[in-house]
Amino acid sequence: MKATEVPAIAGAYLFEPTPHADERGFFCRTFDADAVRSVGLDPGAFVQDSLSRSVRGVLRGLHLRSGAGEAKLVRCSYGKVFDVVVDLRPDSPTYLGRAFFELSGETQATLYIPAGCAHGFQALTETADTSYRIDRPHDPAEDVTIAFDDPELAIPWPLPVTSMSQRDREAPSLAEVLKHKEG
């Protein structure tokens, strides 16, 4: 498994496994504690695994956690998604940096997103399963959402949005979220 730094987001990594395909399908290691350790992360820090299933055009995000934040490993286990990370850590050298990825069930690449970064994705296939490995138990009181179409972020979502949660539809702008964080 190869680990590559994400230049636009300090502390983010893309872990790329080597799927082994044959006439039966494929086999792939999707998590490797040694690969995670090799970039200075603690593989034992992850406490929760979650899975979302989305249909083509569904947009989820942009989400992050307040307080201590939440680091996560994200992988599209089936289908394909357009994945977005925005660095919202004021002390980061890549503050307000954005990075875009196409994650797919074919590659099984995993993206490590540091705490303090917003994350979102859009399903590009009829079915897209996205797996998350999170370093803190979920607390809904700490959920923060930023408008997916904020002009300051200018994220190039590849498809028209077919569906999103009410929370995502009503999300405040990046400026409003940052103002609230400072206050």
From TrEMBL:
<dbReference type="InterPro" id="IPR000888">
    <property type="entry name" value="RmlC-like"/>
</dbReference>
<dbReference type="Pfam" id="PF00908">
    <property type="entry name" value="dTDP_sugar_isom"/>
</dbReference>
<protein>
    <submittedName>
        <fullName>dTDP-4-dehydrorhamnose 3,5-epimerase</fullName>
    </submittedName>
</protein>
<dbReference type="InterPro" id="IPR014710">
    <property type="entry name" value="RmlC-like_jellyroll"/>
</dbReference>
<keyword id="KW-0413">Isomerase</keyword>
<comment type="similarity">
    <text>Belongs to the dTDP-4-dehydrorhamnose 3,5-epimerase family.</text>
</comment>
<dbReference type="InterPro" id="IPR011051">
    <property type="entry name" value="RmlC_Cupin_sf"/>
</dbReference>
